[in-house]
# Entry
Amino acid sequence: MIPIQNLYYLLCYAWNRLPEAEELQAVSGAEFRRPLALLAHVLLRGTTRLLHQGLPLRYTERTEELPELRGRVLLDPTLRRQLLPRGRAVCAFDELTPSSPLAGLLRGTLQVLSRSRAVPPELRRQIRAGLRRFPAAVEALPLTATTLRLVRRERPRGLSGFLLNVCELVYRSTLPAPDTASPARFRDFRRDEPLMARLFEQFVRNFYRLEQRQFRVSSETIAWQAEAATPEALALLPAMITDTSLESPARKIILDTKYYAAALKRHHDQARLISPHLYQLYAYLQNQPMQPDQQLDQQLEGILLYPAAAQAIDLRYTLGGHPVRVVTIDLNQPWEGIAAALLGLLAER
# Structure
């Protein structure tokens, strides 16, 4: 299992945000036993900062029965309720308010966490105190897939985008409740391999984007070096999208991350590399196009990167004329060791 402090680093880089010194000190000093407590802590502190800065104001349309005209008069409900003889009307008008889908989602998610026994009592008390800081105009929105899609469509960035990712991870950690009145129950998302595989991939790619300047970092789509009788037949070939491509004038590295419990698989009592992973990387290397302006001496390399769990390995091959490395990284060591190991992968062979 990834230690809680390292999990904070992983989430920050995965969501393209550098860890903050003040937050690191708080996370290091807190005795979090479950990832949910970390998420609750980070969400509370980030929301508090957002509230301190002031929620952005926006115009939202309100519909209300009023004793004076304001905005647009809605004739149908006004006539149906026979309001005109009483000097009243149903009006639709724009109002400047701090209420927004993101603010409502943050309030709703914190309400869910404030009732969960998986969150330490003292942290639940702090969350309840933090909820009282929300403006009265901000109505809590339920933590659902629909609400998350609604907020995602607004493309929040910076701290707001980071907090949206935290809310989504809380949602993905939620277990089905026996009834709506029961407090939400949560699972340890570190056991969700597909989810952790995506986070691990994003973590590695964004770490290299933020922590080194030698290589240009991207995720690229590689076209098959293939021919077919018709364009329709070519279109049926599966897409090849790299996890991380690192390119400099002298070198290009295709780095593929795999979040598996072990980098080796036993077959007839003999340990072997996982063949689909190696075939995939080999296909990426063999189908790399030579750009017209590309230097002829650029070295093309491949790396398969696994988190170290059952066994640590570091294997080097030459496949199809290209250097290939299959290596694990220990996510259970202090963060400084993880950062040094990742940067060390880029060193010359």
